[in-house]
């Protein structure tokens, strides 16, 4: 029986849409959205600092670890209470949020000398999350991916709208867009005999049957999958956090799944041709992030869930 669904979302991969489709109408689902958000703020400050290459300073490391510890305590508390409420927990976060700073730094430094650095040892938990939480009996991990040619430009635009130009700096842009973290989580779960559900955005954006299949595999009622909803009123939109609205504007302004925005319904090569005009001097940075992401995306795509 499912105890928790952990949605590990690649940035700009349609994860909020996926979560809505599989859980919005499920009466026995209890959402816990990104308890690791505060620690991400500490992580971002380090990634953008001039001393990034020296590692996270000890005072910030202590703050980061304490924030992650608090998030784990909240997560475990909600997870322990959910059964008595007759519910299962769904957690939505990014794979890189709880990553150990030492692993992040190791990866970024390797990229300075190698096109694709070797992966850490198979079976390594690169996060600060305890194995006992990630492997709790009844856990269903979902790893959400999307074509890097869509993810990277979208992340650039959103970060710019947040006042973080140039992707918030190369280290942050790399960490936030490259699906290596999702790949490492996938391999880690496999090494423990757990098979994550890898969901590509094109599949869940274009196939209702695929979404119902995810529900079934995750212990949810496939008959309650959600494909349309009431659009928020102007007053409701005004109450949203500005950063949330900027990052989720397409979803917030919608009343249904926007099938036409799936990658397979777009001319991706034509969109790549527009990068120079859209990104100017940063086109090279955008292209680099796409190229670094592709091998890890393809690895996961080959292992994605199918009907």
CATH topology, by name, is Rossmann fold
Provide the helix percentage: 40-55%
As an assembly, this protein is single chain
C-alpha Rg (nearest Å):
19 Å
Q: Which regions contain 5 or more consecutive residues with pLDDT less than 50? A: none
- Binned strand content: 5-15%
What is the overall pLDDT average? 90
| Spatial shape | globular
Main sheet properties: 5 strands, parallel
Count of helices? 16
**Helix/strand/pairing class, anyone?**
alpha/beta
What is the H/E order? EHEHHEHHEHHHEHHHHHHHH
CATH class: Alpha Beta
Strand tally: 5
Query: What CATH architecture would you give?
Result: 3-Layer(aba) Sandwich
* Total domains: 1
Question: What is the straight-line distance between the termini?
Answer: 22 Å
Q: Order of strands in the sheet with the most strands?
A: 2-3-1-4-5
Task: Explain this structure.
By secondary structure, this protein is α/β, with parallel strands linked by helices. It has a single domain (4-302), classed as Rossmann fold (3-Layer(aba) Sandwich). Helix content is 50%, strand content 9%. It has 16 helices and 5 strands. Strands 2-3-1-4-5 form a 5-stranded parallel beta sheet, sandwiched between helices. Helix 6 (148-161) packs across helix 16 and helix 7 runs parallel beside helix 16. It is globular. The two termini are 22 Å apart. The model has no long low-confidence stretch (mean pLDDT 90). This is Sulfotransferase domain-containing protein.
């Amino acid at each position: 029986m499912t105890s928790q669904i952990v949605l590990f979302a690649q940035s700009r991969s349609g994860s909020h849409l996926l979560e809505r489709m599989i859980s919005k109408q499920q009466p026995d689902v209890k959402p816990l959205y990104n308890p690791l958000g505060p620690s991400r703020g500490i992580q971002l400050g380090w990634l953008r600092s001039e001393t990034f290459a020296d590692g996270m300073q000890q005072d910030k490391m202590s703050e980061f670890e304490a924030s992650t510890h608090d998030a784990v305590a909240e997560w475990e508390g909600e997870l322990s209470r959910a059964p008595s409420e007759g519910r299962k927990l769904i957690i939505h976060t990014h794979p890189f949020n709880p990553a150990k700073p030492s692993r992040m730094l190791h990866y970024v430094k390797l990229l300075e000398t190698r096109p694709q650095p070797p992966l850490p040892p198979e079976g390594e938990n690169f996060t600060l999350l305890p194995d006992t939480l990630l492997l709790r009996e009844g856990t269903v991990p979902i790893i959400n991916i999307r074509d890097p040619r869509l993810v990277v430009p979208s992340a650039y635009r959103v970060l710019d709208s947040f006042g973080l130009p140039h992707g918030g700096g190369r280290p942050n842009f790399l960490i936030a867009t490259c699906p290596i973290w999702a790949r490492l989580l996938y391999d880690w779960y496999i090494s423990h005999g757990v098979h994550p559900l890898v969901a590509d955005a094109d599949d869940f954006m274009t196939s209702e049957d695929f979404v119902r299949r995810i529900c079934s595999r995750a212990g949810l009622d496939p008959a309650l999958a959600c494909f349309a909803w009431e659009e928020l009123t102007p007053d409701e939109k005004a109450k949203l956090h500005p950063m949330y609205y900027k990052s989720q504007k397409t979803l917030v302004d919608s009343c249904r799944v926007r099938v036409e925005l799936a990658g397979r319904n777009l001319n991706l090569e034509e969109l790549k041709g527009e990068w120079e005009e859209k990104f100017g001097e940063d086109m090279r940075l955008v292209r680099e992030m796409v190229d670094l992401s592709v091998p890890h995306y393809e690895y996961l795509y080959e292992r994605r869930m199918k009907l």
